[in-house]
Model the fold of this input.
Amino acid sequence: MQRGKRLLLCLVAAAAYAVSPALASGAFSPSSLAAPQGRNSISGNVFGESRHPLSDIYVELLDDVGMSITRTRTNGVGRYVFHGLPTGQFKVRVLPYGTDYVEQTQDVSLIPVSATPGAGAANEQVDFYLRIKKRANAGPFYAPGTVFVQETPEAAKKLYERGVAELDEKKEKEGFESLRRALEIFPTYYDALNRLGTEYAVRGNQDKSYFEAAHVLLSKAVEINPNGFSSSFGLGFTQYHLGLFDQSISNLQRAVSAYNKEPRGYFWLGVACKRAGKLDQAETALKRANELSKGKEADVHWYLAQLYSDQKRYAEAADALENFLKNKPDARDAEKIKQLIATLKEKASKS
Done:
């Protein structure tokens, strides 16, 4: 009786292999990982350039052809882990959104080694040491353009370079202090005024006093170098948030004249013009921002939709909102936006 059972099990296993040799050999598709059955794992740490751990950084697991399987974030000590993986080839990609670090990918093989077929587990440690983007040293509002050259005291220059390095390492307090000390030595130091001012500007939503400080620093920077995109854009951006709309428009126009291939410049120029009631200028600027971003910036479509709706151009407003959702399908109130699109289309058909 026992011999008959063993024979039956062997026949079943052979039949399964004949139906799906790939499955029997351990190959898999991305969908097979929806509920992983393997005992393998990939874990590791993500570090910055100074080898300090980076927390809350996205890490993505992909199959061997680059299809996304799952995603996690690093914990407070920069560690990530993917459990329960089958045997096979993978890629691990670090996506440092919102930072000055460069994306990085590594290939990983999970092949358990065991004397017993089907036993054992592969546990691979894959660490990442991220590099700073080359343009990061120029600050949050960087864009290519003419280099502004000044004769700078060596002590101020060293403090500036230290401050930039500290900010790149996310040492905000130390970085700000170094830049302030550089300005104490050389009050008209354009690079230091620009970097500290733009750093304050991007933090303005945390505390209005940052915008006020940015306004002082960047106004001085623009006086020293009227042709810099970064300082002109930062000043216009700051003035918009302080309600100085006409001044904002003037400096944003200066910024896009200095460098006309940066979509952010045209986007905020369009937003400022719309807020000031200059709708034709707003539309021109927002369309240019859309062109430069190749239609992939959701916020541009959102403001175009508002502009068209205010002008009762309902069909165009509906198209803009559809493009907004196309670029941001997980938007908050997506269902309400879809209802609004339907309403706008109905209004368009009646008019």
